[in-house]
Amino acid sequence: MLKNYSKNLQAIDFKVIELINIILRANKLILQALNSEEKNIDILQEARKDLKTFSLEAKKIDEKIIKILALYSPEAKDLRQMISFLKIISALLRASSNTKTYIKNFSIYYDILQEQKIKDIAIKFQNSCVSCLENLEKLSKADTDEAKIIFKKILEFEKQNDREYKILSKQIKRHEETIDLDKLIKSLNVLRKSERITNRALEIAYSFRYSKFGGSL
Fold it and tell me: Are residues 173 and 89 in contact, defined by beta-carbon separation less than 8 angstroms?
């Protein structure tokens, strides 16, 4: 029974990392499209395809976690891990939804996002977003000291995006003449999704930290 329990834990851990990497790949494709000198929206079809069954896969993991909780009544550390997984799945579902909306809006507002000043901000946002997501798998596998360092990195990337978003919001309030207001508002609506994906990545980082060190979520 203990052997099956360990196998189930490992399987869930593997699937959670797999889902994180699906979100990561989709956001890397968004970054690639932003960096492209030519209109390259077709590349985002790959991201859409990856995300198509995301909710279904996440639901399967949720059900498996609940089954383990019912069958094995895990203690202390393992219970923390199960709770963390549930929180991570919830954050990943929202990150998936945010990514899908970003891809949709990217196509609608492509011309606006290609204006150099807005494009530079969008790339900066997306770079931070991808960096956060890239560090999640490292965090999940890290030992105590390394995990603390990686968590701080993710936190800093999230703060960086938050600062950039606030600067952009202030530009709208001031209605700077250097940027067309309508375009700025539309671009902000797109970039808000990138900022939210980064927020979700930080939530996941907090859950991994809770799993490793305890404390509060």
Answer: no
Using DSSP, state whether 198 is helix, strand or coil. Answer: helix
The per-residue pLDDT for range 55-100, each reduced to its tens digit, is 999 999 999 998 888 887 777 677 888 899 999 999 999 999 999 9
Region of 60 please: left (phi>0), alpha (psi -120 to 50) or beta: alpha
Q: What is the total count of domains within the chain? A: 1
In the numeric block, which tokens belong to residue 184?
């700025």
CA torsion, points 11, 17, 18, 23, in degrees to nearest 10?
150
- Cβ atoms of residues 31 and 130 within 8 Å: yes
CA distance 179 to 184: 7
- The pTM (predicted TM-score) of the whole model is 0.88
Contact 21, 191 (CB under 8 A): no
Give the residue numbers spanning the domain of 117. Answer: 2-213
Residue 185, domain CATH: 1.20.58.220
For 109, the token pair is: 């507002």
Rounded to an integer, what distance in angstroms lies between the CA atom of residue 121 and that of residue 160? 12
CA dihedral over 108, 166, 97, 140, signed as positive or negative: positive
Distance CA 114, CA 96 (A): 24
Query: Helix 144-174 to helix 181-213 angle, to the nearest 10 degrees?
Result: 160
